[in-house]
Amino acid sequence: MNFHQKPVTYVGEVGLKVMDIEKMKRFYKEVIGLDVISEDGQKVELGAGGNILLKLEKMEGATPKQGRYAGLYHFAILLPTREDLGKILIHLHQQGIQLGSSDHLVSEALYLSDPEGNGIEIYRDRGPEQWNWSNDEVSMTVDPIDSQGLVEEAQKTPEPWKGMPDATVMGHIHLHVSNLIEAKNFYVEGLGFEVVSRLGGQALFLADQKYHHHIGMNVWNGVGIPALPEKEAGLHYYTLIMEEEKRSQVVDNLRTMGIEVVDHKDYWEVKDPSGNAVRLCV
């Protein structure tokens, strides 16, 4: 089962408002290993295998993220194999990058931040047959990662790290939201996702077609936090790729709920209850 191609609804690309576009481009190219697909001075599109995963947009007068706002907790880049994760672990260590890490049962993950403070997860999935489901919820945890095992996996082949493999995709996005119940209603009733895991009353994980999660959301920045201000650097939007028929249904659902959906020709845009912009694409 491929959880990142249609008919599954999945996250396609993430757009960031940035202050220093050259510095950010360099970081994502040299440290993270994404390819520059196109650039024009104000915008840089980066990705893997010719697919855009990240769009950086320079904002004149943008200020650093200061307060507690809704927006990006992290976006998560999914690698094809455990060996790939091991190779980038070695590379990031050699670059002197400060890393967090976790074994989530369903996946193994590394965590870091870009130069402007945006959270990044880089992970690999275990096979779906290894995930444990109970009452429509998947077991996830935060255990120490087997970094030694990852390094050994990477060293099975002599090839050095050469950047992100072609089959790399945007695995999921995890958002700061202001109200978990309102966000859940929007994503479940409006966009058609299912809740697949919960972390107390603090976080929810949602997916399509029984993935472990395409969308994470939490209230760790506080309940009732405002949307990220227009002029602050951070999340600009993210895209959801879905079947055309499903998108029509989703737009109808949202409008029935009294939520504004704007047609931009190439995509429809809607804001979740916390002000995060979602672009619905086919």
TrEMBL record:
Classification via Pfam families: Glyoxalase
VOC domain location: 10-125, 169-282
Superkingdom in the source lineage: Bacteria
SUPFAM superfamilies linked to this entry: Glyoxalase/Bleomycin resistance protein/Dihydroxybiphenyl dioxygenase (SSF54593)
CDD domains in alphabetical order: VOC_BsCatE_like_C, VOC_BsCatE_like_N
Gene3D superfamilies linked to this entry: 2,3-Dihydroxybiphenyl 1,2-Dioxygenase, domain 1
Name of the protein in its database record: VOC family protein
Organism listed in the record: Planococcus wigleyi
